[in-house]
Amino acid sequence: MARIQLRLYVNPGEVEVFVNIRQKTGDDYPTMAKIDTGAAISLLPEKLMPQLDYELVGSGTIELEQAGIAQQSFKAVEARVTLSFQDELGNQTVPRTAVVWFADTHILLIGFRDLLEHAILHVDMPHRDGWIEID
């Protein structure tokens, strides 16, 4: 099980991880993503689609209702991507395939399906220390 050190922020409280997403060229696209323990599926900006290697799930386009927000919805493209996590010390997980939603956003969110559901998340906000262990 790989142990990846996380970046923690107190105000506002959030946790980030380095992510490498496979591009069409076979190289990795390195970026930062926020860990969202309330997200069912990971979210990626649709502007990355032209360069990333992905496979559509079903028809691809879906419409989603935002949880807890009345009468707000957004469209997304559901796809599979291959990604790995990495930290500043060079520790890296093995690449894994995950279902994600590409949407009109600038934020990358890591959610449960295919990723956090296989992980143990350790967060110590007072000491600003945290890591993720993923099989």
Shape: globular
Query: The biggest beta sheet, please?
Result: 8 strands, mixed
Q: Summarize the helix and strand pattern as letters.
A: EEEEEEEEEEE
**Fraction of residues in H or I helices:** under 10%
Strand content: over 45%
The level-1 CATH class: Mainly Beta
Based on the structure given, which CATH architecture is correct?
Beta Barrel
Task: Give the helix tally.
Answer: 0
Distance linking N and C termini: 5 Å
Low-confidence stretches: none
Radius of gyration: 15 Å
What's the average pLDDT? 91
How many strands appear in the DSSP assignment?
11
Q: What count of domains describes the coordinates?
A: 1
Looking at CATH, the homologous superfamily is Acid Proteases
Here the CATH topology equals Cathepsin D, subunit A, domain 1
The structure class reads: mainly beta
What does the secondary structure layout of this molecule look like, with pairings?
Layout: E1 2-5, E2 7-10, E3 13-22, E4 28-35, E5 42-45, E6 54-65, E7 73-86, E8 96-103, E9 109-110, E10 119-124, E11 129-134
Parallel strand pairs: 4-9, 5-8
Antiparallel strand pairs: 1-11, 2-3, 3-4, 3-7, 6-7, 7-8, 10-11
Give a verbal description of the structure.
- With 135 residues, this protein is mainly beta.
- It has one domain (2-134): Cathepsin D, subunit A, domain 1.
- The chain is 0% helix and 58% strand.
- It is built from no helices and eleven strands.
- It has strands at 2-5, 7-10, 13-22, 28-35, 42-45, 54-65, 73-86, 96-103, 109-110, 119-124, 129-134.
- The strands form two sheets. Strands 2, 3, 4, 5, 6, 7, 8 and 9 form an eight-stranded mixed β-sheet that branches.
- The protein is globular, with a radius of gyration of 15 Å.
- 20% of the residues are buried.
